[in-house]
Structures are given as C-alpha cells and as structure tokens.
Amino acid sequence: MTSPRTTNLSLVDTDPAELAVDAIVIGVHSQPGGQDATSGLAGTLLLASGAESIAAAFDGKLTETLALLGATGGPGEVIKLATLGTVTAPVVAAVGLGPEPSGAAPAPETLRRAAGAAIRALAGAPRVALALPLPDDADASAELRAVAEGALLGGYRFAGYKTRPQPTRREPVAEVLIAVPDAGDAGAQAEVVRAEAVASAVRLTRDWVNTAPNELRPPSFADAVADAARDAGLGVEVLDETALAAGGYGGIVAVGQGSEAPPRLVKLTYTPQGGGNGKRVALVGKGITFDTGGISIKPAQGMWEMKSDMGGAAAVGAAMLAIAALKPAVAVSAYLPMAENMPSGTSYRPGDVITMFNGKRVEVLNTDAEGRMVLGDAIARACADGTDYLFETSTLTGGQVVALGKRVAGVMGTPELCERVQAVGDAVGEPAWPMPLPEDVRKGMESDVADISQVNAGMDRAGHMLQGGVFLREFVTDDVAWAHIDIAGPSYHSGEPTGYWTKGGTGVPVRTLVQLVEDVAANG
Question: Record-annotated residues binding Mn(2+) 2 (predicted)?
C-alpha cells in the first residue's frame, strides 16, 4: 500500500503576482499588542518578505483583509482569500510564521512547518506556488531545504483501504513551485534534488508504518525492503529463520518464535565510489511488525498502534535509499531485525535464558521488552562486521514518552556522539535529548542466573528508558562510538495533522540519520 500521489517540486524566479497557479502562499507574522489603525482590530499583521508584489496588488489592504478573516499570524495558521483578479492566482493563502524574528529570517523549522501546513490546507489545488521568506545569503540553503521538505511532506497522504469514494476528500497538491531569487542557481537546484530524495524516504517510511499489520509481517517487510534496496543499487543480505538459528541470533529467534510469520534480519550495504573517506557507519533499526507483548500481553486499549513498532527499521531502510541517491563519501551498512511478537504455544517466556549473537546470556523477565532482544543481536552483528560509528533507532520504551513527550527523542550512548545527534536533530527539526546511562540502573539489571536481566530484576520501572539503553550497551564493542535513539513518541502521530506531520507514521528519524551520515562523510 503506497501513497496515491507524489508532489512535484520546482523553482521559479518569476514575480509571484504573475504566476499561473491555482494558489499563492505568503507568510505573515503576528505582532501582538498593537492595533490596526484602519480596522481597529487588536493586534496587527506583518507580511513576511516574498509577499511584496502580492501586497502591492491589493493596494496595501491585504493585511487588513486577512485580519478581518481572522488571521493572527500564529504558527501554522492558514487563511485563504479569493483574489478576485488582483493577481493571477485565484487564491492567496496566508500562513502564520509567528512573531517576526529580529534581524534574521524565520527559523528553518518554522518554515518547514508553515510550508507543510499550507500545502495540506490547499489539497485540491493542482498547482501551488510558495512565496515564503528565503534569504539571499549563507543561510539560504537551510531555509530553502526546509521549505522544500515541508511542502513535499505536507502533501503526503496514505492511500488507505477504503472501498468507497470519499466525496469530501481532495487530492493532494500535484505541483509546488518555490519562489527563489535565482531559479537557475546550482546550489538551489541541488537543494531541491536533496529534498526530493530525503522526502521520498520519509514518505516511504510513513507508508510502511501506516500499512496494516496483516499486510506487513516480517517476511513481506523484508521482501519490500530488499526489493527497494536492490532497485537503488544497494547490497542486500536477508537471513531467514533457519539462517538466524544457525547463526546464533538468539534474541531475534526467541522473539519471533511465537508467530507463524517467521523472523528476518536484513542487511543493506552502501559502498561509496573510491572507498569514501575510510570511515564506516552502521545503522540499526527495530522492526517489530506487530507487538502484542507476547506472553506479557499488552492492554487492549491502543494496541492497534503497535503496528508502528517497526518504525525504526522502516526509517533505517528508507534512509539507506536516500543515502544511495545522495552518494555520500562514507561506507554505510544497515541492519534491520524483524519479528512479530505474538502469544502462542511456541512463544518465548518470562524466565527463559537466551544466548545472544555475541554469546551473552539474557534472563527474560518481560516478553514485552522484545525490542532490545532483537536489537542486541543486530548491534552485535554490526560490531562484528566492523564499524566506527553505530546509530540505532527504535520505538523502544514508553518511558521515553513519559520523560520527553511525543516530539523529542531520547538519545543514549557515547556522550560525544549523543551531542552530535542532538545538534543534527535540532538542525533538521527532529529534536533529541541526551540521557544518562547510570551504573545504578545497570546494577538493578543483575541476574541470578544469567549475564544480565532483560529489565530491572525487581521489575522496577524507574528509569525505564534508561534500562533500554543500558541493556543495548552490553552489545556494543568498546571501540565503537554509538548512539541509541528512542523514538517511541516521535515516530507515530495519533493526533490531528500539524505542520508537515500527518496522522500516523511521521518518518522520524530519517532526516536525522541521513544528515548524520552526510556529516560523517564530510567531517569524519
């Protein structure tokens, strides 16, 4: 199941007032505390740069009219206005950018969310132009990248499974034109190419996460990833249940043995031309295609969202497709352990002792802590293959949501690498916050019968997110810098659409992973 239409993106440097489009989007800033002298409305609006010719066509009455329609300039607010022939486009859509920043253009994330909100609000309009503020300086690439990504992701819609036409459902915008100072500039064109590659990966991640779990079980998920990777020119290795058992992947086998759909481990390999810069990056993503909790079964309420428990693997697999397209100068391998955690007569049990890929033995206390079991094997395999940096991402713990909410990921591991993840996440709009791995948490996971308990030996949930990170650390070799990114909250959005997030899978942290790989390629 895939999204029905991909938005096409291009650059223009024509006067926005003369563009032959179905709608033109401009930005407006809020200015609380003032009063419009003409209308007497509390608060005034300030048009953002890029809207000058549109404002001139309205004889200076555009902000007054927008205010009368209820515009406040609040972030993400979209107000549509019929132009009645004042400009070529029949509709002007004003998107809120919040207060005007002092001495600078709006932050990239503000523009990314604004572009996404505007394109989503204009569904049904085949051709839309964005005349948002883009500086003509060193920051231009970041701002243009944000607008392009927001437009492409805001237009996403999952195809769904409805059998009847939906009369009120409008088609996503088919073509987006972004107004820039120079449409022929090579740097600007490169940003469009990059945005298309990255947004395509995010959209694919969303498709995989949103797919019904009966249609995306481990074998079919592995096939989908492998097929897409081969088409992209990546190296592909798929281990089935027989190969996993023979190879000693005890964690993946244990979690998957309760399901009739057997587990898989998919390895993808990107080899740069000329060998790259000599560094090696490993990406690891959790691929639990559905998580009932197993014998330690979850409550029924909300369990349907556990189709998203493969969000880490989806993000890693799709990020590799973007990496193949962007061709960074660094070697990258990806490891996607896939299993379905089901209760049955063959399920693994609390009390089981599992021998992992690296030989460590784990006492299982809670079969619902299955993600760390499959990830432990995959991380150990990545380290055995050899890598300098390891980035792992997973919908691992409810503790992440409790501690950091639904937009900020938790990141644990090598302190310097965690700081790098945080910096990149802030830059791309996927924030992450470094968390500690205290020794007292590790002490609480001591087992009487094995090398480590899967969770706290007394079932104490204090520091639950940290327990996941402490467990995964056991499978990272000392010479590898690593970061575990817990995306339990940010990977799935169950609320109403906002910014460039639609309901369902978000695609987090594809953009972080791609940027991290590019950063290692550029800086080592």
Answer: 286, 291, 309, 370
Binding residues: 286, 291, 309, 368, 370
pLDDT digits (tens, 9 = 90+) for 261-293: 999 999 999 999 998 999 999 999 999 999 999
Catalytic residue among 112, 120, 372, 381: 372
User: Where is the binding site for Mn(2+), in residues?
Assistant: 286, 291, 309, 368, 370
Q: Rounded to two decimals, what is the model's pTM?
A: 0.95
Rounded Cα–Cα distance for residues 500 and 153 (Å): 5
Pick the CATH number of 200-523 from 3.40.50.300, 1.10.10.10, 3.40.630.10, 3.40.720.10: 3.40.630.10
Distance CA 92, CA 22 (A): 9
**pLDDT tens track for 172-214:** 999 999 999 999 999 999 999 999 999 999 999 999 999 999 9
Superfamily in which the 8-160+169-184 domain is placed by CATH = Leucine Aminopeptidase, subunit E, domain 1 (3.40.220.10)
| 298 belongs to the catalytic site | yes
Has 372 been annotated as catalytic? Answer: yes
- The DSSP call for residue 173 is P
Query: Which residue out of 127, 298, 406, 442 is catalytically annotated?
Result: 298
